[in-house]
From TrEMBL:
Composition skew (Acidic residues), residue ranges: 478-488
Membrane-spanning residues: 36-55, 94-114, 126-144
Superkingdom of source: Bacteria
Record lineage: Bacteria, Bacillati, Actinomycetota, Actinomycetes, Micromonosporales
InterPro entries with a match to the protein in the record: Alkaline_phosphatase_core_sf, Phosphodiest/P_Trfase
SUPFAM superfamilies with a match to the protein in the record: Alkaline phosphatase-like
Gene3D superfamilies reported for this sequence: Alkaline Phosphatase, subunit A (3.40.720.10)
Coiled-coil features, chain-numbered ranges: none
Annotated keywords: Membrane, Transmembrane, Transmembrane helix
Segments for region (Disordered): 476-495
Name the record gives this protein: Alkaline phosphatase family protein
Length: 703
């Protein structure tokens, strides 16, 4: 009698168990496990030997006793680490971070406590010994890997296999299996953002052979590289508002003042980012269909947001990648120890700049000493979170890696230390490639940046005073007349931030100047009545290249020897836009339509030969305005994928291109793709101030 597919049978389970045993006892798996055990034992032996030798009062350091202690550490770890991982997972957030450090110390303390040799006694000595052992273990492991990411990859693979097996059990699969899950066949898309990387810098680094992963992609023809123009402002929040939400014009700078509420907005403050996201989101964000946002300013309407500024929370209990990274001896603890090494590296590199009198340069002390190792730690955490989401089968993942941008701000965008950070990001792409066989989907990788950086001595270094001081000097003793102040019948502004009558808000070499007494944005005539010397003084200052102000017939860009009427393109005298490139007029016009733009918009001078700018902040590498490479971002994508617009102009254009690729892969719902088409049509009708030669976006098509 034939057995129907729904009737139980003893044969399939028997064959299944035989298959499981063959998978468990395969010689490759046994050899891999044996090698891992021997390596772990050797590292533990070396670490314990050195630690006990350094501890005062330890008379015996017998090899046999130490080998016994190695076995005890392994046994205690085998029992405690799974329990500690459960605790770390249950805590989530800051609790996971704290317990992750303590977990490694607890294992060593308990092992030393039950050591028959009793060489360390007393809780203070036990804890000190454990801390030293953990630090030495991180250093020895790093040296054993020759500075590679092999250990990190092994831990990430273990995490991914655990996640996939757990998902299989929840879906009705076997409770226990020794088989390694196969890579999924459905497509997925991972978008990795290299924060602050300009297209010319990346192209040069690839040609120099310093980026083996990206270089291999491009030389093999699997991927293509193209530049895209960010426009103004060239900042991460504005670019991500466009890339993730298609809403660049909601953000005029990295910082700005809102006259209607009296608030100074700073986009890297979680509470401000949380206020901004509802303005950006229309429900059609890049990640709306089950996507994941990791380490970004905004969510892109993602189903899962991890380390996203606008959500202002650390990953919770559901993010097993966060817990696994914190609990692993090769995760948070290792990154913490190596991060301390980054601080010493930074001090050494800063000292070399001073001794060589390298110019331009800025101070690299203070908060930056903590920021540099923090960005390295965040990179490793982000990649662990990406690995987890790859195992879960997230259809689309967008992650921002900030290492290069943070170092380039203080060292310079093309300096050796910045290139070192770029090389480490290239290694992370290699890590993701190595993790791909463990993923629940067949992922495609797209690499892009949000803006570039421009180098130059700062405004203060060049002229001995800050822009705030210059504005104060040109406005002192003025305010001869007043203009239409709010009447008593108007409602008071709630939660208003106390500000000066003239407020200067800088973002790189872009500055917005606000006359805060007046709710409406003022034109040139009104500003001249209140501060007669202000505009003339700023235009004449050698550090200010452009002053943009509203005139009777639209915005005007004023320079030392001429002016440019942006709406009709009429130029009087020498065109002040010439040093800023052929797109400057288009960029400034688009920026004038942004919400909450200043009464005056200032762009620093730019050297026509070196393309160096004078940042209004104390940063040797800056972005936010115009000039140099700060507006030249990059996009690396699979070479065979169609590109709708050969000249991607602005973050919104990149958003629409990514949406088309998602639709092509079947990862964008039909209704969402149709929404994007309608949105493009509306935007095409609204572009009334753009220059005729500006490239336009073509319609989005369902894939």
């Amino acid at each position: 009698m034939a057995i129907s597919p729904h009737e139980p049978s003893a044969a399939p389970p028997l064959r299944s168990w035989r298959s499981e045993l063959r998978a468990l006892l395969s010689w490759r798996r046994i050899l891999t496990r044996l090698r891992a055990v021997l390596r772990s034992a050797l590292v533990t032996f070396v670490v314990l030997t050195v630690t006990l030798w350094l501890m005062p009062g330890v008379e015996s350091n017998d090899i046999v006793d130490t080998l016994g202690l190695v076995a005890i550490v392994a046994g205690v770890g085998a029992v405690l680490r799974p329990l500690l991982l459960l605790g770390v997972t249950a805590l989530g957030g800051w609790g996971a971070m704290l317990l992750g450090v303590i977990a490694q110390i607890v294992v060593i303390v308990i092992a030393l406590e039950i050591d028959p040799a009793e060489r360390i006694t007393g809780l203070p000595s036990l804890v000190l010994t454990a801390i030293l052992a953990v630090v030495f273990a991180a250093i020895v492991d790093w040296m054993a890997d020759s500075g590679t990411d092999d250990t990190f990859v092994r831990e990430a693979r273990r995490l991914m296999r655990g996640v996939r097996r757990r998902q299989a059990r929840l879906a009705g699969g076997p409770f226990l299996t020794f088989r390694r899950p196969r890579q999924g066949s459905d497509p997925g898309l991972i978008m990795v953002q290299f924060d602050g990387l300009s297209e010319p810098v990346l192209r040069w680094a690839v040609r120099a052979g310093n980026l083996p992963t990206l270089g291999h992609w491009l030389r093999s023809g699997s991927h293509a590289m193209r530049g895209w123009h960010t426009g103004l402002p060239s900042t991460t929040p504005a670019s991500q508002a466009g890339i993730l939400h298609g809403a660049t014009r909601q953000i005029p700078a990295f910082r700005w003042f809102e006259k209607d509420t009296g608030k100074l907005m700073v986009t890297n403050r979680p509470r401000d980012a949380a206020l901004l996201e509802p303005r950006l989101s229309d429900g059609r964000g890049l990640l709306r269909d089950g996507g994941v946002s990791i380490g970004n300013a905004f969510s892109g309407d993602a189903a899962v947001s991890l380390l996203t500024v606008s959500h202002a929370a650390l990953p919770g209990r559901s993010a097993r990648g966060w817990a696994a990274f914190m609990a692993s001896p090769y995760g948070f603890t290792r990154a913490l120890v190596l991060g301390v090494g980054e601080v010493f590296t930074e001090l050494h590199q800063a000292r070399l700049q001073r001794r060589r009198n390298l110019q331009p340069r800025v101070s690299r002390s203070g908060a930056f000493l903590a920021l540099r190792p923090a960005s390295m730690l965040l990179r490793d955490v982000n990649v662990s979170l990406i690995a987890e989401q790859m195992a879960r089968g997230a259809p689309a993942i967008y992650c921002d890696l900030v290492d290069y941008d943070e170092v380039a701000h203080h060292a310079g965008p093309a300096r050796p230390e910045s290139m070192r950070q770029l090389e480490s990001l290239d290694r992370m792409l290699g890590v993701l490639e190595r993790l791909a066989p463990e993923a629940a989907r067949r992922y495609h990788l797209v690499v892009l940046s949000d803006h570039g950086q421009s180098q130059g001595a700062t405004f203060r270094q060049r002229y001995g005073e800050s822009l705030d001081e210059v504005v104060e000097r040109f406005s002192a003793g003025d305010e001869a007349e007043t203009i239409e102040e709010p009447t008593e019948s108007e409602p008071p502004v709630e939660n208003a931030t106390p500000v000066a009558p003239l407020l200067v808000v800088s973002s790189g070499n872009l500055a917005l100047v606000y006359l805060t007494k007046f709710r409406q944005r003022l034109d040139r005539a009104a500003i001249d009545r209140v501060y007669p010397r202000l505009i003339h003084g700023l235009v004449a200052h050698p550090g200010v290249g452009l002053v943009i102000v509203r005139g009777e017939d639209g915005p005007i860009a004023l320079g030392t020897s001429g002016r440019h009427h942006l709406r009709d393109g009429i130029v009087h005298g020498v065109d002040p836009l010439l040093p800023y490139g052929p797109r400057a007029r288009h960029d400034l016009l688009r920026h004038q339509e942004a919400e909450h733009v200043g009464d005056l918009v200032l762009i620093s001078c730019v050297d026509p030969v070196t393309e160096e700018v004078a940042a209004f902040e104390e940063l040797v590498g800056s972005h936010g305005g115009l000039g140099g490479w700060q507006t030249e971002a990059v996009l690396v994508h699979p070479a065979r994928w169609p590109v709708t617009d050969t000249e991607l102009d602005g973050p919104d254009a990149v958003h629409h291109q990514l949406v088309e690729w998602l639709a092509m892969l079947g990862l964008r719902t039909r209704s969402a793709a149709a929404d994007e088409t309608l949105q493009l049509e509306r935007e095409a009708q609204e572009k009334i101030f753009e220059s005729p030669e500006s490239p336009r976006l073509s319609r989005t098509h369902d894939g």
